[in-house]
Structure formats: structure tokens, C-alpha cells
Known about the structure:
The chain is an alpha+beta fold. The chain is built from 5 helices and 7 strands; from the N terminus they run ααβαββαββαββ. 46% of the residues lie in helices and 20% in strands. Helix 1 (2-20) packs antiparallel against helix 2 and helix 3 crosses helix 4 (99-120).
Amino acid sequence: MNNSLAPIKSLAASLESLLRRDPPPPDWRDDARSGLNSIVSRADSLGRFLQAYTRLTKLPPPQKEDLEVGELVQRVTDLEPRLKVKILPGPKTKIRADAAQIEQLLINLVHNAVDAALETHGNVAIGWRDIGDCVEIVVEDEGPGIMNPANLFVPFFTTKPDGSGIGLALSRQIAEAHGGSLGLANRRTGTGAEALLRLPR
Length: 201
């Protein structure tokens, strides 16, 4: 938060100094406009940060119900307009989960996978399988792969210009609230990354 507040304070002080100059410099209007635009930009960034922080710290307990995994996957892929996501059909199986939370988790994973795939003109696929008393949902992309795995789930860390840095952190929090887990790694074969969501049935 200080990274946004400090520049705002500095810019405000510079603008105050500019307005006190007598006579004002010829281009004072341009300088003032530029400074005010920077303050607005910083304030917007701070607002997005606070909204993201609120979402991350106020995740409600999951309201679990029976969800058919195939139908869940279909709903999520239908929401991605940028690239047709290939569905790798799995067994007809159900999980006990909060529909809104798990959908948001999968939307985050698919969105990130498509972001990566678009960089290399690759594809994205999602599938699922039964593993003992759990269901594994796998999202694979043919993007450039993971360059810095150490920071993947660090809240507010992002390499995207418009990213909030909470997508994966929130997704893992949702998975763990359901007694499951979420991992992300480079694919063993081919290029790209693989997200593995494991949830109890």
C-alpha cells in the first residue's frame, strides 16, 4: 500500500509547489494535468489492491452441494470467449462443493491457461479423473511455461500489467477450504503448464 501512497503524496507536494510559483511557468497547466493524471492512476491501482485484499481475506465457508463434474467443466469452458477450450471427457462423477467458489477457481485456472496459450498460439484442454476418494481436474496449456514457480501462489505477486495477483492465491485458498489441493507446474511432455486441482468426492 505504501508503494501507492508515497507517490501520491510526492505528486501532491510537487503540484502544491507548482501552484505557489509566481509567476507560474509557461507549461504549468501541462505539468498539473500530468501530475493529476498520475494521482488518479495511483488511486485506481490502490482501489484495485484493496478490493483484491478484501476478497482474499473474506472468503466465506463453502456451502457444499452435489456437483456433477462434467457439467461444471462445461459451464466454465462456455464462459471463455477468447479460445475454444478442449474438454477431455472423464467419468461421470460428483463432488461435494460450493458451486460458486469452485466455478470461480476453475474460471481462474482456465483464464490463466488461455492467457498463456495465446502467447504462443497454442491450445488449452481440461479433463478430470477419479483417483481413490478424490477427483482430479487438470487444466493444460501450450503456453511458454512457468518461468518463476516460487512466486506462483504469493498473494498480490503478478507479472501481468492489469493483474491483481490474487487469482492463484484465492484459488488455492478455495481448494484447501474444500479439503483439497491445487498445484501448478510445467508439463512433463510438450510445452506449457499444467494445473492440478484435487477435491474430495
